[in-house]
Design brief:
This protein has about 425 residues and is mostly helical. The chain has 20 helices and no strands. The chain has one domain. It is globular, with a radius of gyration of 21 Å.
């Protein structure tokens, strides 16, 4: 990866064969569309196809014997499987607004970005549950296209295609295809922020980051990520001389030159206004600016060493909890560790800015869960990971076939299980 600098090489891309050399400019063919437009068109079609298949699978799942009851509403016979677990909280918020009872599970635990959009769509559709699926479909479609757009600015078209395939077929990625959760909207806003900053639109990037910050608690990581990427683009994160030192192998820059930050780049700092605005509203309404943190005690997930050091996770393993549930926790713990260990490779391939963002977003998400439950879907926000996997499998056909094949099967299985009310993540 050639680090972008102020001298004008910000648009160069990573080549798999020669990662330290810029890829030759991709020109539009005389006849037909450019590789980027072809990729975007393919991604759009792929998203629609996958969403259709997974919705069919979830519809089948709720009609098989032994299925847990779904919420009763017009269209539940088809979409009922997409509204499980936290979806009911979002529906309640969209209908009734927020409430907070100290010491008890309360809706303030859920950030307002997604339920506010659901409420707006519900004003047109007339069904908040159906609105959750529709908001997720639109947001998931946007996330897929934005990820494809981001990869084309960083990778060869061929490699970008495999990166997008991994992103769309990630087994926990069914949250992008209809599940009534805020993750699809959050990921779309995060990707919009980074695409905008790559296109020298710091103010709009900051606005997108602010919206992400009122959608998920880990949105604060976007602020750090945007600042790091801007600094990298300005040459403020120079690489260390040589590749033999430990810090060089970890992708740690030689220094951080804040002086490279231009006045107009300060627009990305608008991203901090999202979480600040949410805390200000909570303080005014309930007298607790961090009620979304305080209320976690009702889920046995109080901020502190018990949660940070995963005492609950150890308890699940030692107490002999349900085997399937424990297996899910272990898988998510392994994915979290792999994501953190991948940061140096991301720094080498995609730059220290994106490595720093990935590390921050994974660490913040992991600190907030007592037993790694939820990390499977939280990792969707660590989008550089999927680009790295695309790079690694692009020239390994056997690995690629095995990985993509496994992802297809596991994604279908996960969507089926979610609709059956299995608490997967």
């Amino acid at each position: 990866m050639v680090n972008p600098t102020a001298a004008g090489d910000a648009g160069r891309r990573t080549s798999v064969a020669e990662p330290t050399q810029p890829e030759p400019t991709q020109t539009k063919p005389k006849h037909g569309r450019s590789p980027t437009r072809n990729l975007l068109a393919g991604v759009a079609l792929a998203y629609v196809a996958i969403a259709g298949v997974l919705t069919g699978i979830t519809a089948l799942a709720i009609h098989l014997a032994g299925a847990a009851p779904t919420l009763s509403y017009r269209g539940s016979s088809v979409l009922g499987g997409w509204c499980r677990f936290d979806c009911t909280w979002y529906v309640d918020i969209a209908q009734r607004g927020y409430y907070y009872t100290p010491g008890k599970q309360s809706s303030v635990a859920f950030f307002p970005g997604y339920p506010l959009v659901v409420r707006a769509v519900d004003g047109i559709v007339g069904s908040p549950v159906i609105s959750t699926a529709r908001v997720t479909w639109v947001a998931g479609f946007a996330a897929a296209v934005l990820f494809a757009l981001w990869t084309t600015g960083r990778l060869e078209a061929r490699v970008a295609g495999w990166a997008v395939a991994v992103f769309l077929l990630y087994p926990y990625g069914f949250f992008l295809f209809g599940a009534g959760y805020g993750d699809a909207l959050f990921v779309a806003l995060v990707l919009a922020a980074f695409v905008l900053v790559e296109h020298e639109q710091p103010v709009l990037a900051g606005v997108a980051g602010a919206l992400a910050g009122v959608t998920r608690p880990i949105g604060v990581a976007v602020v750090a990520g945007l600042v790091l990427v801007v600094l990298e683009r300005r040459g403020g994160l120079p690489r260390r001389a040589g590749t033999t030192g430990a810090l060089a192998r970890l992708g740690v820059p030689a220094r951080i030159e804040l002086g490279r930050f231009r006045p107009r780049d300060a627009g990305v700092l608008l991203a901090v206004l999202g979480p600040v605005a949410w805390s200000a509203w909570l303080a005014d309404r309930f007298g607790d600016a961090f009620a979304y943190v305080t209320v976690q005690q009702a889920w046995d997930q109080t901020e502190g060493p018990h949660t940070w050091f995963k005492v609950g996770f150890g308890g699940q393993l030692l107490r002999g909890a349900d085997t399937g549930y424990v297996a899910g926790l272990v898988i998510q713990a392994i994915l979290t560790l792999v994501a953190l260990l991948a940061a140096p490779a991301i720094a080498r391939r995609l730059g220290p800015g994106y490595a720093g963002y990935t590390a921050v977003v994974v660490v913040l998400a992991a600190l907030g869960t007592k037993d790694f439950q939820g990390m499977g879907r939280y990792l969707l926000a660590a989008f550089p990971l999927f680009a790295l996997v695309g790079v690694l499998i692009a020239d390994r056909p056997r690995v690629r076939v095995a990985l993509i094949g496994a992802c297809v099967v596991l994604l279908a299985f996960a969507a089926f299980g979610f609709a059956r009310n299995w608490y997967l993540t």
